[in-house]
Write a structure and sequence with these properties.
Double Stranded RNA Binding Domain; single chain; 52% helix; 3 strands
């Protein structure tokens, strides 16, 4: 999914609380290592940013609060990625000096190869 860079920059300017208000938070049972506490409680956190539809999850910790923080950091990292705008490329011509150096290099290579040929 692609996000408009201006929208991503707007979201990055928000505080954590304001960003959480724009997100839908869902808790679920996160399976895996961590024992009964992790396997029987809803410690997994899924954040969905409602305006853009971006979704991130965090399930690696046994604490819901820690997973919420991790999910929020992932959400911010995702918006950092989408806020990047590549600079415009400007077409340029090779300078006279670089043309001359390239031609001299080709001439040297040509002379080396010609010297390998021996006379028949």
């Amino acid at each position: 999914m692609s996000v408009n860079p201006q929208e991503a920059k707007r979201v990055l300017a928000l505080s954590d609380e304001a960003l959480m208000l724009e997100c839908e938070e869902e808790f679920f049972v996160a399976s895996g290592p961590g024992g009964q506490h992790r396997n029987k409680t809803e410690t997994g956190v899924r954040l969905t940013h409602k305006p853009t539809g971006m979704t991130v999850t965090a399930t690696e910790r046994r604490s819901q609060l820690q997973n919420r923080g991790a999910a929020l950091e992932r959400m911010k990292a995702m918006f950092v990625k989408y806020s990047y705008v590549a600079p415009k490329r400007v077409a340029t011509k090779p300078s006279k000096g670089s043309k001359r150096r390239r031609l001299e290099s080709k001439k040297r290579t040509s002379e080396i190869k010609a010297s390998r040929r021996g006379e028949w």
